[in-house]
Amino acid sequence: MLTTVFSKTLLDRWRGMAITVVALASLLLFAMAVYRDIDLSLYTDLPEGFQSLIGIPPDADVAGLAYNAIYNSYGALALGGIAIAMGSAFIAGEERKGTIGMLLGNPVSRSAVLVGKTAAMVLLVTLGGLFLWGSGVLAPQILDVSVEGMHIGAFTLHVAVSALFYGFLALAIGSWTGRTGPAAGVSAGVMVVSFLAVGLLPLVEGWEDLAKAFPWYYLSGSDPLMNGVGWGHIAVLVGLTAGLFVVALVGVNKRDLRSRSVGVSLLDRLRANPATAKVGGWLAGSARVSSIWVKTASEHQGLLFVVSMLMFWFMGVMIGPMYSALDQDLITLGESLPDSMLALFGGGDLSTPEGFYQLESFGMVAPIAIMVVTITMGAKGLSGEEDNRTMGLLLANPVSRSRVVGQKVVAMVLYGLVVGFATFAGVAVGSWLGSLGMAVGNIAAASVLLTLIGLLFGGLALLLSAATGQTRLAIFIPVGAALVFHVINAMAELGDAGWGQLSPFHYYLGSDPLNNGMAWGDAAVLAVLSLTVIALAVPAFQRRDLRQ
Amino acid sequence: MTESSAIQAKGLTKHYGNLEALVDLDLDVSSGEVFGFLGPNGAGKTTAIRTLMDEIRPTAGSASILGLDCHKESVEIRRHLGYLPSDLALYPNLTGKDTLTYFANLRGGVEWSYVEELSERLGADLTKKVGDLSSGNRQKVGLIQAFMNRPQVLIMDEPSNGLDPLVQREFQAMMRESVAQGAAVFLSSHTLSEVQRVADRVGIIRKGHLIAVETVSSLRSKAMRRVELELGSAADATVLESVPGVRDVSVDDRRATLSYDGKMAVLLRTVAEQYDVVDIATQEADLEEIFLTYYRSKEGSG
User: Fold this and answer.
1) pTM recorded for the entire structure
2) How far apart are CA A128 and CA A134, in angstroms?
């Protein structure tokens, strides 16, 4: 039985891992090829503080830059994300689907199920790490790039062990709560916050050691690429991971399993209390079922809340005062930087608050944040109802398929606007708090462009969802496309190549809207592309047989 | 369309690759009747219903409901239609009341007092979240949803799933009342007894082909039954086999079992002439036997 739980989990999960590591390996090759052909002195002449900010080790060369750019940020986050998806689904996911009862109806203990599933996760992450190692060794040989003195194996070991930590964190939370939402959400939150903290804290004088409190520190803190395996740091991660596994084992054995059931939300509690029943009932019930778009919006309100708050507080309000607190010497040095240098991380001239906001907020985190919302809503809008087998019933009402698509679009656009506005408001407040004097109109322009790029990839997800009815496809393809386009744009800017215009990201920050204000032409390109993919979704959905 | 035609299908065909899920289906269901659509699992019942509902598009043929084309005018059709899909799924986070409010809103409103009346008749709990309901109680929400707009056509796919016998009876009464008011009911099922209780006519489908359309009374007269006889003396298979409609006789001393397709009076008369009948037990033949009967008769005539 143990082997069947193990092998079933492997079969269910290997594709996501395979696609991810192949994509990462391709990106590594691509990045290395670009770095090989440009003058690297602009990196290597940087002061140490800058290098740590953008995550590159001292005396980095072509290979070192590529490994850090691709594996240390994208790679570690992607592998961690996959591990979190697995960890949160293992126990809590089976409870949500209502299959845990049947699984445990077989003569197999709860511990054995947990061990079988966990072993599959460990194996998959290990294989993913090995693949990254192999492609990390192969890429420089193909491109004839020197990797002398670099410990690629040690580096990928750190990446894989770190990913497992987040996977086990999700597993432990899921095992104790039986809920996938908190398990995935909290773990992803811990991962992202510690990723940011380890990048930012060392920049503030006197706060350097605080970074050690965050698990990301044990991935990159010992610089395993240059120094080999940091066994002390690995031991910390393995120890924490083992501890989390014990916590998960205790939790899953101790707890009453949940039958297939739905959670109790704050609104439900309001509804249950006679004093607040009326308001609660309106909010939870009659208001949210008044139309298709309102209901769709209400299904994603938790996600919207988390993402908007992240953008408002962490990526907006807090960055302003933090910039003011930064070492001024560090900032003045930035004046000598070439514009293209930081392109991979979203670009931006660090000697100005605009550049700092662009690097920390608009460059990478903001597009990821808004796309989490728009791609989720686009992908789940149509095929999600088919997955849940409610589409047939919905369409038994006198509403046309095009109207259903339209209403799903309304919800997605509205939420995209909310995230865009939260970003705008956060940055505007942050700029005011830090007395940075950024132009409010320019912040608005960047936020509008952000909303548009979010809607473009959300629209692509909607189109795929409409055309295929496959939610996974509708999520993976836009995410993959966004990643590839982002890297293409960044690399093109590094090399000053014209083909960056092929990437939608060129029309997002290519005009430097935080400094130059609205680029109406770029906005129009993004708007037309978004409208096109969204408009195509209507005939795609009308033409298709619904899944059963 | 004729005044009374509610559902019509002409040569309706659906292929999935090489699989012929539905082949050349002709149907004509009138207003004011319950039409039972009978077939084993995987026979093509749900494919036919999903095609009528415009969820999937036919490979060939066409269908209309209330004279409106099932594809081109499907939105207009759905104003006058109630639908209960097979294996009903609802939004688990909504209560029964929220669910019904949602669908009512999509219809531009329904008479809420009627919803409450239906809910009371079926004993539905509309305050709980649908995800926390048992499948039978969830099915009640689905039934209310199908009936609440007083539809002219009701299409229901295996509607009795999970309902206890008392609720089934209430549901059947609701169907009869709708029909009495001129509605047409199209209901699929894999149990003969259910269809016989409520339907006026029955279409029998197997492997995508509509084998026969019969009134329930003629189906009943034809229906194959398994008969077990206990006789006063040792039974003789040849005597029993001489009765027209008797098949598959097996004899064990004074016990005989046989399949019979005909009027019970004829069999009893013949047996009673020869034997002292001590006990008799009959049971409904299962669907497969009925299909075989129809196949035999088809082959015989064709």
Assistant:
1) 0.77
2) 10
